[in-house]
Amino acid sequence: MKHDIGVVTGKRKDGTDAIQNVEMSLIPEGDVYRLTAKSELQVHKILIDKIIYYIYYYR
Predict the structure, then answer these.
(1) Cα dist. 38→3, 26, 30, 56 in Å?
(2) Count of H helices and E strands in the chain?
(3) What residue spans define the domains of the chain?
(4) 6, exposed or middle or buried, with CB in 10 Å at 0-12, 13-18, 19+?
């Protein structure tokens, strides 16, 4: 899924934020879990640990 995300790129002369819209492709959360769990690469173990850490500390 593609979304436009507003990114603060600096400050304008009047002190307000300068925002640039950047188009980003986002993967739905369920697909991240599915892709990570089915991966046969060694890196999938690291990704699973990072996902679990994120869920535990940031939700």
Answers:
(1) 26, 19, 12, 22
(2) 2, 2
(3) 2-58
(4) exposed
Per-residue pLDDT, 59: 64
Angle between helices 43-58 and 29-38 (to 10 degrees): 150
For 20-57, the pLDDT digits (tens) are 999 988 888 788 778 777 777 667 677 777 777 877 77
Retrieve residue 57's tokens: 């500390």
Is pTM beyond 0.70? Reply is: no
- Answer yes or no: are the C-beta atoms of 5 and 22 closer than 8 Å: yes
Write down the pLDDT at residue 8: 93
CB burial class (10 A; 0-12, 13-18, 19+) of residue 52? Answer: exposed
